[in-house]
Amino acid sequence: MKNIMYTSVLLLGIAVSGQAKEDSIQFSKISTEILNRGKAYTELKDLTQNIGHRLSGSEAYEKSVQWAAQKLKEAGADKVWLQEVMIPVWERGKESLQIKTSNGQWKTVKMLSLGNSEGTGGKDISGDIIMVKSMEEYTRLSPEKVKGKILFFNYPFSQDFIETFKGYGDAAKYRVSAAALTAEKGGKFAIIRSLSSAFDEVPHTGAMRYKDGIPKIPAVAIGNTTADELENLLKNQTVTAKLNSNCGMKGEKLSHSVIGELTGKKDRSVIVVGGHLDSWDVGEGAHDDGAGIVQSIEVLRTFKNLNLQNNHTIRVICFANEENGLKGGLQYGKAVKESGEKHLFAIESDAGGFTPRGFALEMSKEKRDQIKSWTPLFFPYGAYNFEGQYSGADISPLHEMDIPTAELVPDSQRYFDIHHTEEDTFDKVNRRELLLGATVMTQLIYMIDKNW
């Protein structure tokens, strides 16, 4: 009996070892294909240089829809289609912010209105600035003190977190709620310190929200060094701010997410890989999220070029309207729920095109442990971190349906230097880093397609 058990264990070990070797060889083929013949970098250049930033509702976004459909066809998708999405339309227009001290002259400072903010209607609005550095300080302010003033939320992006997304999450509440909090106490408009890890004057935009029943007042962001200068001025003198802006919501319009797929050879269960096609209206939307779009298309192209016989349907989704509404992700989730179409897995790349470090996994412990057991296969490609338990915003509706979801985790140290700014441009993307991200995404989807 012992001999039979020993033989069985030995044969199992040989089988496991042989399987791991086969997977390792396939991983190497995927890497070789993408690093040598991948088109993600050149396609990102085309998207960013010839179309540029792509705010939902803009003419540039509509051009990017046609661009993405064409690239999916060229990559070899069996089927490409546009999914209708009603999206909010927000326009920035001209804007300016000036400050002055009691005895000084007006000085123009760099700023950006927050996304979805209402403006001043092209008129000057001014008032003295009151600074708070935390929600606790805000809570202690009386409405009488804030009424008619400008509220400056000077909460810094924490440098304590090694994972910079934690710093972003920690500070995000100020961007989202600054306008509503200011309006609640009678302020004229809000200024926030940008959600930025960089020490420069570059302002960062991003979405904010209003509350029902509270006036919709403007909210703007200034860069870190500008915020420091303003804080120093406020220590011993009165500072007045003057805002003039033309931004505002312009209703809704019909737009589209772009979808392409390789039909499954065994069944039609779906594996989703995607990013969001829209960007903010500054910079070029290179890291956020042009990188995720071209990496996702590269996954499909690689399966096609290597003639990998995918068991399940691999579906690339270029989501609409992630930045200021999430309508593309919500619409896709709604369609899946209504159709009952089976989905095995979904992954999004929306954290920049930097060197991949691993994957965040939002799924059952059993599924997480299975993927983590593949770590030795990914380690040679620099992917080793499988500890995060979150996933991309666009695929959150799928997670709510108990579909396993994940997100590519690149090195994040530089991401929030340029996130949502004029600095998010193609020249900030490194070819090999971008292609390595596409490589590990393809490898993960290969393993899931084969084993789930």
Labels describing this entry:
disordered N terminus, Aminopeptidase, elongated, 452 residues, 2 domains, alpha/beta, eight-stranded mixed β-sheet, 15 strands, seven-stranded mixed β-sheet, 22% strand, Glucose Oxidase, domain 1
Can you walk through the features of this model?
This protein is of the alpha/beta class and 452 residues long. The chain has two domains: 30-90 and 251-451, Aminopeptidase (3-Layer(aba) Sandwich), CATH 3.40.630; 93-246, Glucose Oxidase, domain 1 (3-Layer(bba) Sandwich). Helix content is 40%, strand content 22%. It has 14 helices and 15 strands. It has helices spanning 2-37, 40-50, 59-75, 135-140, 143-146, 164-184, 224-234, 286-305, 327-339, 365-372, 375-378, 396-399, 415-418, 431-451, and strands spanning 79-91, 95-101, 107-109, 112-113, 125-132, 150-153, 189-193, 219-222, 239-245, 248-262, 270-276, 313-319, 343-348, 356-362, 405-410. The strands form two sheets. An eight-stranded mixed sheet has the order 3-2-9-5-6-7-8-4, sandwiched between helices. A seven-stranded mixed sheet has the order 1-10-12-11-13-15-14, sandwiched between helices. It is elongated. It starts with a helix and ends with a helix. Residues 1-16 have low confidence and may be disordered.
